[in-house]
Write a structure and sequence with these properties.
The chain has about 70 residues and is mainly alpha-helical. The chain is about 55% helix and about 5% strand. It has helices spanning about 5-20, 25-45, and strands spanning about 55-60, 65. Strands 1-2 form a two-stranded antiparallel ribbon.
């Protein structure tokens, strides 16, 4: 994986959150690590996870946000 640094940074942040008694943040960082690893593998395999006509963005709460693209 050519972008291992991204996983390393997220892992360091997760360790810090755990040491600082921030379990909810640590759990979210676990999720972020899995998402990053999945997307990085897909990019390296030459795949596009989201086709342009299927583009969906999420707001900070994780719910689908209106991105201005007609459905």
């Amino acid at each position: 994986m050519t972008n291992d640094w991204m996983i390393d940074v997220l892992t360091d942040l997760r360790k810090f959150a755990t040491k600082q008694a921030m379990p909810e943040l640590a759990e979210h960082l676990d999720d972020a690590i899995l998402v990053a690893a999945t997307e990085l593998r897909a990019i390296e395999a030459g795949q596009n996870l989201l086709e342009a006509d299927e583009y969906q963005s999420r707001d900070l709460s994780g719910t689908l946000a209106d991105n201005g693209v007609p459905g």
